[in-house]
Amino acid sequence: MMLVSTISYIDRNTLAVLIPTIMRDTGLSVEQYAWVVSGFSIAYMVGNPLWGRLLDRWGVRLGMLAAVSLWTLASTAHAWAFGFVSLMLLRIVLGFGEGATFPGALRTVVQTLPESSRARGTALSYSGGALGAVITPWVVTPIFRAYGWQAAFLFTGAVGAAWLGWWLWLSRVPALRAAPVVQSTANVSWRDPRIWAFIAVYSLGAAPLGFVLYTSSIYLSRVFHIVQGDLGYYLWIPPLGWEFGYFFWGWYLDRRVATRRTYSQIFTFGLLLSLPFALVPRITSLPLLLFALFFAMFTTGAFIVPAIGYATLIFSTRQTGLIAGLGAGSFSAVTAIVMPICGRLFDRQQYSEAFLMVTALPVAGYGLWRWLDRD
């Protein structure tokens, strides 16, 4: 599951890495690109809870086989995208298929690991997203230089096809067919304010993650004047913080007694660590900028991993696919709303306003969680 989340982020991040060249070749503006990201995010938002329910009913083996097949075809077809409309349609299909990634990961964690190891298991399976974002620039840039940006998408399709062949063999293990042990009898209910508390702290706390992932290449290109062929040397650094963040916060959480007080403390840490992100546009040193983006992505782990633990502590583990889908889907909904606004601000070179707006979102998420987290 770590590898499939890696592949999903290679597929989605290839566009982000190559977007300066793709914008030049297709005539897209930053705002149009942001709407493409928004289209992906809306489809991803819809796909997450839907795939979560399907995985809870069908099982991981069949559900992931269907989802990865769909998104692999969509990713490969990006090689023939020629403009805004075709790119938007392909991103919508890709986003819908990739909605199964984290519901499948969490369902696998619950079915194969004891409760004492689940935070680290969640961190490991979810960390593939960060790993994919780290390695994509290193893999995609040489392919781009040698064969052009279209060939990079053919590569992503080949990687997805290879995983599908391995999954057919691996997913026969009995643990993936067993019913999970239920520690809680509470089912997800829209009337329960705690489900909204989970959605708020996950989606808004993680908002800087999507912003950094989708805009770093544009910011480095326009503000620091780094050309497309050299972006790959830098774009792996920010998501490395995301990778470290997952493992650090997962390790920290497993060392503590899982109570709502524990989650409150970690969310408070995340809030305080997220505030310096607003100062990024004042940075003129490239190494310091990369560290700031690295640190921002590291901090999002303080919201994502504990939020999943918080939800699985309260709600039935039979609904883990749905819980993961609601978390990732709500994050995608926030990204869908925020990115077009940020794209317009970037077109106007209003970078300070964009970073300040994104910094305010974890503050709002924390405040909503504090207000809604009640019995």
Task: Describe the fold and architecture.
This protein has about 375 residues and is mainly α. It has a single domain (about 1-370), classed as Up-down Bundle (Growth Hormone, Chain: A). About 80% of the residues lie in helices and about 0% in strands. It has 15 helices and no strands. The protein has helices spanning about 1-25, 30-60, 60-75, 85-100, 100-110, 120-145, 150-170, 195-205, 205-225, 230, 235-255, 260-275, 285-315, 320-345, 350-370. The mean pLDDT is about 90.
Describe this protein with a few key phrases:
375 residues; mainly alpha; 15 helices; 79% helix
CATH architecture identity: Up-down Bundle
Count helical runs: 15
* Overall geometric form: globular
Give a short account of the largest sheet: none
Number of domains: 1
- Cα-atom Rg, whole angstroms? 19 Å
CATH class, named Mainly Alpha
What share of the residues does DSSP label as strand, in percent? under 5%
Residue runs with pLDDT of under 50 for 5 or more positions:
none
Number of strands: 0
CATH topology grouping? Growth Hormone, Chain: A
Secondary-structure-based class equals: mainly alpha
In terms of quaternary structure, what is this? Answer: single chain
The rounded distance between the terminal residues' Cα atoms is 33 Å
The run of helices and strands is HHHHHHHHHHHHHHH
CATH superfamily: MFS general substrate transporter like domains
Helix percent band: over 70%
Q: Mean of the pLDDT scores?
A: 88
